[in-house]
Write a structure and sequence with these properties.
The protein is mostly helical. Helices cover 83% and strands 0% of the residues. The structure holds fe (ii) ion (2 copies).
């Protein structure tokens, strides 16, 4: 069983790499297929796998400790998850429509949104969680994280894809 905060930090590092790859892709005018794959990764890994752990598990514990869900740091990050979801839908649509200017505009906005989001969680919310939760609760969160199903076909496939996206965007992994 792994430390759940380290699990989220590890996932944040991978998400940040994909965000950096997207930022580089915008500069290099990569084909739409690159964005389609990066957006698929963000949907499956960042949103369905990672954000779900935060929303359905860790953040519920923070709410149980009295952290409000509608304002303050938790209110902010939950709203950012919703904005991010809307951008994913929009980026998919722009890619399908081959509307490059709209796609690039939303990619830029999404990268900015999610970079700030990951920073808020790493610098503020995860340290607060570590300080608030008891050792027993941290063990419960770890067990619940372990029970979250891996994205199909496996978490390794999705994590390896990060290196491919980074290499294609011309950056360093
Ligand atoms: Fe988040
Ligand atoms: Fe996160």
């Amino acid at each position: 069983m792994s430390d759940p905060f380290q699990v989220l930090e590890h996932e944040h590092r991978l998400i940040s790499k994909v965000l950096d790859a997207l930022a580089q892709a915008v500069e290099r005018e990569l084909p739409v297929s690159f964005y389609e794959r990066a957006v698929e990764w963000l949907d499956i890994y960042a949103t369905q796998f990672h954000h779900a752990k935060e929303e359905d598990i860790l953040y519920r514990y923070l709410m149980d400790h009295g952290m409000p869900r509608d304002y303050g740091p938790l209110g902010v990050v939950l709203e950012e998850h919703d904005y991010g979801d809307a951008y994913i839908v929009a980026m998919r649509k722009h890619a399908a429509d081959q509307d490059i200017p709209a796609l690039l505009e939303d990619v830029r906005a999404y990268v900015e949104l999610l970079k700030a989001h990951v920073e808020t969680e790493d610098d503020l919310l995860l340290p607060m969680g570590r300080a608030m939760l008891t050792a027993e609760e941290i063990a419960e969160v770890a067990a619940l994280f372990d029970a979250v199903p891996d994205p199909e076909p496996s978490v390794d496939v999705w994590e390896t894809m990060v290196e491919q996206l980074v290499a294609e965007a011309g950056g360093k992994a």
